[in-house]
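Take a specimen:
=====
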Amino acid sequence: MVGIDIGTTNTKVALVDVGRGGADVRAVSSSPTPQPDALAHTLRVLLRRTICGGPAPAVVGIASMAETGVPLDTGARPLSGWVRWDRASAAAQADRLATRLGRAQLVTATGVRPSAKAPLATWMWLRENRADEWARMAHWAGVADLACRLLSGELVTDHTLAGRTMAYRLPSAADPPPENFDADLLAEAGLRPEQLPRVAVPGTVAGRVRDGFADCGLAPGTPVVIAGHDHAVGAYGAGVRAPGQVADSIGTAEAIISVVAAPPDPVAVADAGMSSVLTAAGDRRALLAGCASSGAAVKWWLAHEGAGVRTEELFPALAARYEQSAGRPSAMLVLPYLSGRQTPRPDPGARLRVLGRRDEDGPLEMAYALLEGLSLHARWMQAEQARLAGLDPSRSAVTVFGASAVGVPVWPRLKASVLPGPVRVVTTSEPVAASAALLAAVRTGLVDPAPCLPARDEPAPEGATAEYERAFERFVDAATRSGVPR
C-alpha cells in the first residue's frame, strides 16, 4: 500500500505492507510541501523514489492538513498558492457568520467554532478581497482533494476534511456522515455544492489512478482513497478508536483527540476553543483541540535561542538532561504561545513567556523548559476534554505519534512524566502517511480487522508524575492570569 501525507511543512510518501499482524513501513520519502502548481511534480518524485521499481501498490491513501486549499479554474488549474489554515485573515467574516446565523446554532450544526481559519469564512474573504480570482473560480480543492484530482481525475474529499470547513453538517448519532456539503451554508459565501468536492464517506473509493502515473510505479486503475485529516488519520492508525482513548499528534502543530461515547454539548466544547468531530472511521464522536505552537515553537527556539546549537547535538543533550533530573520538573516555566492560544481559555493575545529563568540557565535549559511547557499545555488540553466529556484523565491512555515523537525521543518521555495516565508512543517515523495506507487498505476491503501501527509503552520515572502536579498548577495559573505564578 502507499500512503501520502501532505502536511503544513513537509509532504511524505510511505510504502507499507499491511496484514493481520500489523503494518510494516518498508520505505519513506519526503520533501517540503510545494505550492499547488508543483504538487504533481512532487508527488511523482516521491512516489518514484519510494516505490523504487518494486511491485505496484494495491491501493493509495491520501491524508493532509485541513482548512487549507486552493481555487481552481475550469481546467482544474490552481488560481493561486495555498490559502492556508494559519493565515488568519478572515476573522471579520467569521464574526459576521456567527452574528447572522447564530453562533450556537452554527456550532451545533457543524461542530466548528467560527474563527478566522474556518474555510467558510475564508471563502467569504476571497469573494470580498480577490474578486477577479473569485470570478474565475470553478471549484475549490482542499489539499488532499487536489492530490486526488491529480492522481485520479476525480475531485473528492472525506468527512474529516469536510468537517473542518464549517460548511458540512455533523450527522445525528444514528446517521452516517453526509455525502455532500451543506447548500445553505455554502450559499453564505456565494458557493454552490457542485463547486465543492464530493464527500467519499467511509467504505467508499474516491477514484482510480490514471494512466499518467504509471512511470511512478502506480498501476492504472489502482484505487485511490481519501484517508482524511492528518490528525484524525494518525489517531486511527495509532489505534485510538474507542471511547476513553486519547491521541496526541505532534507536528508543526499539535492536536489532542479524545474519543467519546456520548458527545458533550458542542457549544461548551466551542467555548473551550475546541471542535466536535467524527473519527476517521466515522462511527464515533471525538473532541479535537489544537495548539499551533508545537513543532513551530521548537523551530522558533532554534532560530532565536539556539545559539548555533545543531539539532543532532541538541536532542542527545536534552535526553541526558532528562536522565540527570530523573524526569523531574525544571525550575523554569515556559508558556509556549507564539501567536495566541486557541484552547483552553482561548486568548489571541497570549504570547511566549519565560518565568523563573536564572542567569545560569543557558540554551539547553531553555530548550528543556520549552518542551516541558508544550507537554504541560498538552496536559491542559487533555484535562479540559476530560472535563467536558466526563472522563478521568488518569485512566485515559494517551498514544503519542508524529515525526517529532520519534526524532526527539525526550519529548514523549517528558509527556510520560507530565501526563496523569499511561502513555504509549507510536514508533513509526511517518505515522500519518503509514496510517493513510492502512485506512486505504481497510476501506477497500484488503484487510479486516484493521491492525495498528507498532507502538511501545513509555513509563514515567517513579514519583515524576506526582511532582509535575505542582508544575501543572503553576502553568495553568500563569497562563490564565497576569503576574508571577504561585
Notes: The mean pLDDT is 93. Residues 363-389 form the longest helix (27 residues). The chain is about 35% helix and 20% strand. The radius of gyration is 22 Å.
